[in-house]
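Handoff note, outgoing to incoming analyst
You'll be picking up this chain. Sequence as last confirmed:
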Amino acid sequence: MDVGFLVFGLAGLLTLVCFMPPLAGRLKLPYSVLLAIVGCLLGIIVHVHGWAPSWIGDFLDSLERFEISSETFLMVFLPVLLFETALSMNVRRLMDDIGPILMMAIVAVVVCTVVVGVTLDAISPYGLVVCLLLGAIVATTDPVAVVGIFREVGAPKRLTTLVEGESLFNDAASIALYSVLLAVLGGHGELTASGIFNDFIVHFIGGGVAGFAMGRLACFLFAWLRGFPTAEITLTLTLAYLSFFISEHYLSVSGVVATVIAGLVVGSTGRTRMSPTTFEYLSSAWEQFGFWANSLIFLFAAMLIPKLMAAADWQELALVAVVFVATLVARAIVVFGLLPLLGLTRLGTKVSNPYKVVMLWGGLRGAVSLALALAVTEQTGVAEEARQFIAVATTSYVLLTLFINGISLRPLIRMLGLNQLSPVERTIRNQALAVALEDLQGKTEEVAKTEHIGTEVRDRIRAVFDASLTSVHDGQVGQMTDDQRVAVGLAIVAQREEEMFFDILKAQIVDWRMAEALLARAERLEDAIRLGGIPGFERAIAADVRYSTGFRLALRLHYLFGFQGWLARELGQRFANLMSKRSVAQRLIVFAREQITPLLGEEATQRIVSLHQRRLDLIENAMQALNLQYPSYAQWLQESYLGRVAREMERIRYRDMLEQFLISGEVYADLMAQLKSRWAHIDTHPPLDIEMSAAELIKRVPLFEGLSADSLRAISKLLKPRLSLPDQRVLTKGRHGEEMCFVASGAVAVHLPDNTMIELGSGEFFGELGLLGEQQIAPDVTSLGYSKLLMLSSRDFHALLARDEHLRERIQLVAKQRLRAIEVWKQFSQANAASAAAPAPAPSPAQAAEAAEAASENPPSTAGGNGMPAALQDSAADSPNEGAEGAPPPGEVLGEPGIVPR
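Most recent structure output, in case you need it:
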């Protein structure tokens, strides 16, 4: 075919497609249905166009000479359709309903294949394999045909996600079954349940792994292409085709699943890896790609319908009616039978009956089914009779779903009221409308005065506002409960928070790694409010300041092997995250006061502000310990943050000057180069030095003062430096006599059995009594901040005491003092217990003398005030250290009983 006529034919079709969306709107028809009608008409006209003028005749001739094969559908159009749909999906909402989606995408395909196959085999002469093959072909639903209708009528987002997610993944299941059955029909395989199952598992999971790997690779490459939008968008286009082709032809896994997963990865992760403006361009570009691919694939597929239906007879058409009923029955089995059972498990979420009805009736079929049927007609190894039947049955069935289900789906959604706002949403809508109209009416009056517009015109415009305000009952906001108003306000603020974090990314105030974490936290907060209301928000803000999984793993490796580099990076990342969250939390409180008050009222706004103030307090508390422990790093973070803000403001200023023609493009380029050089230092991220060298830390412990250099070197080899987090349990009751600890910096709290507490600061130690065999008390010890500890195991402890007599004497002296204090404390405890049961006699002279003796041996410490018995405080607190025995082994860290940070 001449290239010029090929281009002429494609350009003519795209020109025709341009007028389809407005025409579909005027005719009240789904866009896919109109495309099918036009395609069928074109398929008929191309064979009888002798009457047409020469240029129309040439156009129709070029269409007739198009060689449209099944491979064209699957390799040219399908990757674009799948990738575009996956790119626009919200991955978190998809994962919320992953159970029902996979049920409809996998189980429903199998059920449909079996029900259609067995039913047709019982009433037709074509054989079980042919009937099963037809069932697999008609089991795949078309995402574009269904979701297009949902978007037109304003269906709920969750319903759209359920059906769209099903349509994305069931192509893979259908094509996997189709491949196995076609091989059996061609004599190249056997029909066994295990064979089909194994083939499907390999294809589906393998495709998912391949797509995830290629999607992550593309996101990594975005960093190299940053600043070149055309290159970044081109990479996503090549990713769609390469993930499909490589998976199918080189890895022998599902190209459909690979393309879908790659699109989901780019849609969720890519927006933080590529420049923000590029992601906006990317969304628009892929919307255009999807429109072209969807329109052309429907037109080309529909043009084949007259050819495929030419040899149809009444018997085959009667079997099509059976197929239509059988597919509905199969879908009903899954929707109304299996989905409720899935809802009883952790994988399932409840789906309402109106949603189930729409999911049952909304299983439209489209171009993929036609492409698979066309592929069967191209298989010379399949009997002619079977090829003809599959082609006619599939084509007729697709037309039935489009013209019956497609046309009636919109009225069905309206009849079920799924396109209507909820009472709460209507109330908020009316209140927002009232607030906006009142504000706009005042501004319109100001414009009228400024422009000297006549009184009559102003009265007419005022009448429009007055009529609209009269129809809006802004008092409806009072119909909501207080908790409903607060929950709605929290959801609005959460959405604003996500936008703020994205704005921070656009301004390059944070890098993509931090932006990815911040955006994920903001999405989780919004989901928590949507699912749990106010309690969900409170749980989410508590979880927001907890340590990440990466931090927990880094801390585990630090305790097991002493690795510090990863832990230092995680600490720095947490520091920067908390600072960004604090900045946004402060601005959100201002936003709530200014924007939520007119919408929801003063009382609801105060509760929202109070909840966010509590969140801000949690963030401040989490940052306080870091600021105290690492003041230099905190200062650098503030400098970096302020510098990035200044850099962005300078960039915006130069861009405005360029747009206002105050400077030329050459001057703008030079200014931007100077800007980049001027602020380059703020992108240099200094490492957070956690200073965990044993040789340096032992110098802070007074117990080791005066020891020789050789002794200090020997001791430093035995002591294991460890970082303890705020509120982290260091020693617990369950592990006695395993280790002792020296506090090099920071502070720990010793929790005694009588619910009293002692604080131990830098230079003090604890746990030595357990190593000396004294197990009389076993308190818990927790860190009060980011404390640097030196851990000494039981074996090394005894070796050290045997080697250094002077050190042994010091430790034994402290142990003796503490044991004396324990005896005093026991006597006081017994006296208090006796006084609780009966009038307590005055302390005996011996007891008083003993307490006085303990107090005289150890003068009171100014660091007391902890509620501990006075004699115990006096005898223990002023010694170089306070004691508590029982330490967990180095391996007992986060997630285990030994160390549990908040």
